[in-house]
């Protein structure tokens, strides 16, 4: 069941904390602005830093369905580039 989005950056931090997710102010600011502007939020970083968990927590907080898009270099689908052909693979999973 959808709930209202946090109305301040501090409220985002509070909602993350309620879900036992330790987030910092820059992450909370990005989440707040994405929600306020109605835009998607793309998070990138090294494996294991909490990107997927942040998305899961916010989906839970908002009562929303999480659609996860995972892209990585691979051999599944050729995509054009200026220096030849590169390959990328993207898979989605919903929860």
Please outline the major beta sheet: 2 strands, antiparallel
* SS class: alpha+beta
Total number of beta strands: 2
Q: What integer value in Å does the Rg equal?
A: 16 Å
Number of domains: 2
Q: What percentage of residues falls in helices of 4 or more residues? A: 25-40%
| Through-space gap between termini | 14 Å
Basic shape? globular
Order of helices and strands: HHHEE
Spatially, the strands of the biggest sheet line up as: 1-2
Average of pLDDT: 80
Number of helices, counting only DSSP H or I runs of 4 residues or more = 3
Q: How large a portion of the residues is in β-strands, by DSSP E?
A: 25-35%
User: Which spans have pLDDT < 50 for at least 5 consecutive residues?
Assistant: 85-89
Q: What would you note in describing this structure?
A:
The chain is an alpha+beta fold. 37% of the residues lie in helices and 27% in strands. It folds into two domains: 1-64; 66-95, no CATH class. The chain is built from three helices and two strands; from the N terminus they run αααββ. The protein has a two-stranded antiparallel sheet. It is globular and about 40 Å long. Residues 85-89 have low confidence and may be disordered.
């Amino acid at each position: 069941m959808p709930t209202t989005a946090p109305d301040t950056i501090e409220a985002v931090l509070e909602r993350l904390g309620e879900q036992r997710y330790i987030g910092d102010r820059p992450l909370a600011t990005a989440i707040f602005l994405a929600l306020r502007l109605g835009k998607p939020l793309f998070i990138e970083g090294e494996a294991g830093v909490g990107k997927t968990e942040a998305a899961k927590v916010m989906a839970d907080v908002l009562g929303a369905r999480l659609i996860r898009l995972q892209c990585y270099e691979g051999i599944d689908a050729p995509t054009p580039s200026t220096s030849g052909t590169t390959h990328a693979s993207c898979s989605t999973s919903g929860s």
